[in-house]
Design a protein that fits this description.
The protein is α/β, with parallel strands linked by helices and about 280 residues long. The chain has helices at about 40-50, 65-75, 145-155, 170-175, 175-185, 195-200, 245-255, 260-270, and strands at about 5-10, 10-20, 30-40, 55-60, 60, 80, 85, 90-95, 105-110, 130-135, 160-165, 190-195, 210-215, 220, 230. Helices cover about 30% and strands about 30% of the residues.
């Protein structure tokens, strides 16, 4: 049966800068630079559609050129885009990928965090099997309140809820206890996190089921009531860019389970950018 996933969070443009050597002050560094759609929730929606599921994105975006480009790319991927369109600035994320494929990101979220619970329409969440909530949506109002309301609407419509933790540095700045309280209110059916995010929130993932991402070492899955089990990373032809690998993994799991999750992540790292 085809799975329908609604993803709530950011829509942005990604600028991926692949450096041939380390940056040096007052110098010109050769690089390969690409521009494409981004935003964690939008990336998940794009991967869901690519992997054979039905995808809907819910979020606030600006009516600027960047917003029009980002929406057009998402719709071309087969994603149903919903949410308010406002004056302002669409977010941009710059990802610096070093010669050893290490990655550093600089993020401007634009109008995405301004989504309010009063702007949500229940019809946007109708018919979904999963509501995916980006962890970035929990760090600032008013979108944090919109995420909670969306979870309630989704559950009322029969959907399950998945939450993806984001950025250990942001968890520490936001406050681990505060985030754990939000997760208790959201009651996710499954929680995605990497090792650094798990450690930042306190060393134990507060959800009955969770997926712990370990990079090249694969993942540990805890799908209640079964005990945890490990799945190795799927082989990639060449690791080019790890941007978006976790988003692809989340989409793969929601559409088809652990094996598709690992396959999608491997596909993602074989090319620049976060989208399929």
């Amino acid at each position: 049966m085809e799975v329908t996933v609604c993803a709530l969070g950011d829509l942005a443009l990604d600028v991926v800068v692949r450096l041939e050597q380390r940056l040096e002050a007052d110098a010109d560094t050769p690089a390969a630079i690409s521009i494409g759609g981004g935003g964690q929730a939008a990336n998940v929606a794009a991967w869901v559609a690519h992997l054979g599921g039905r995808a809907r994105f819910v979020g606030k975006r600006a009516r600027d050129d960047a917003g029009r480009l980002a929406v057009a790319e998402l719709e071309q991927a087969g994603v149903d885009v919903r949410g308010p369109v406002v004056d302002g600035r669409t977010g941009v994320v710059v990802s610096l990928v070093g010669p050893a494929t290490d990655r550093t990101m600089a993020s401007d979220r634009g109008v995405s965090p301004d989504l309010r619970d009063t702007e949500l329409e229940p019809g946007w969440l109708a018919g979904c099997d999963w509501l995916y909530v980006s962890g970035y949506s929990l760090f600032a109002p008013p979108i944090a309140g919109a995420a909670l309301t969306a979870c309630r609407l989704a559950r009322a419509a029969g959907a399950r809820v998945a939450v993806d933790l984001s950025a250990s540095t942001l968890i520490q700045a936001h406050g681990p206890d505060r985030l754990r309280a939000q997760l208790r209110a959201l009651e996710p059916d499954i929680l995605f996190a990497n090792v650094a995010e798990r450690d930042a929130i306190g060393g134990e993932l507060p959800a009955p089921s969770w997926i712990l991402k370990r990079g090249a070492a694969g993942c540990t899955f805890r799908l209640a009531p079964d005990p945890p089990f490990g799945v190795p990373a799927a082989p990639a032809v060449e690791v080019v860019d790890t941007t978006g690998a976790g988003d692809a993994l989340a989409a793969g799991f929601l559409v088809g389970g652990p094996q598709l999750a690992m396959t999608a992540a491997a596909r993602c790292v074989e090319r620049p950018g976060a989208r399929p």
